Every structure is written in structure tokens, then in C-alpha cells.
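Subject: Sanity check before I submit

Could someone independently write out the C-alpha cells for this chain? I want to compare against mine line by line before I put it in a report. The sequence has 140 residues.
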Amino acid sequence: MNNPNTKSDSWAAKNTKNTRIIFYWTSAWVLTTALVTFGTEFIWQSDKLLTSLAILLNVVIGFGMILAVKRYLKGLDEMQQKIQLDAMALSLGVGLVVGLGYSSMDQTNLIPFDAEISHLIILMSLTYIVGIFAGLRKYR
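---
Independent answer below. Compare away.
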């Protein structure tokens, strides 16, 4: 007959598969980012062609990662999509507002160091994680 758990099991399996795919794309993107960062200094000694190819590879894999995340989000249920959307909106807003302020502080020499993009990425990542946990708690 019709097993009511079949649809749920199928959705869980698809969600697990999409999560695994995001992991692979994200891992590849992080590795190519490291290749660009360290390869130019330690492997091919600033060769412009190899650096350009590594950057191109990094960007192409980055777009693959974006598409994997999009597929993952489409596969979530409405509540999980809302939690993700809220967390992403919070992360984008905080990143934009704080990032512009941080850059302005660097440009006007209010801070004794250079504003680095890595600082902004860390802030946005932490904000996203907090947003996910807050959403999970809110809709528990």
C-alpha cells in the first residue's frame, strides 16, 4: 500500500544528498581559495598566467557552490527556508552596514590597521550562524 513515511524518507534522503553536495562544492572552493592565496607565493612564484587560471578556477567553483546552495534551499520546507532567508538577510545587512563603517574607519585612519575582507567574512559568518540558531529557537 501507501507508506506515509515514504515521502518523508525521500525528502530526508534528498536533503542529505543536497547537504553533501554543498559540502563538496564548499570544500573545493576553500581549497581553490587556498591555492590562489598560497600557490602564487609558494608554488608558481607569482606567474601571472597560473595565478589568473587559479583565480578563474576559484570563481567557477564558487558559482558551482552558489548553485548547490540554491538547490539546497529549494529543497527545504517553508519553515527552514524562512529561517535561512532571515539569517541570510541579517548577515547581509550586518555585513553591509558594519563593512562600510569599517572601511570608512580605515580610509579616515580612525583604526591603526588596514580593514581586511577576511574580518568582514568572519563577521558575516558568525552573524549567519547566530541567525540560524535564533531562527531555530524561535520556530521550535
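---
OP: Matches mine. For the report I'm noting this point. The chain has a mean pLDDT of 93.
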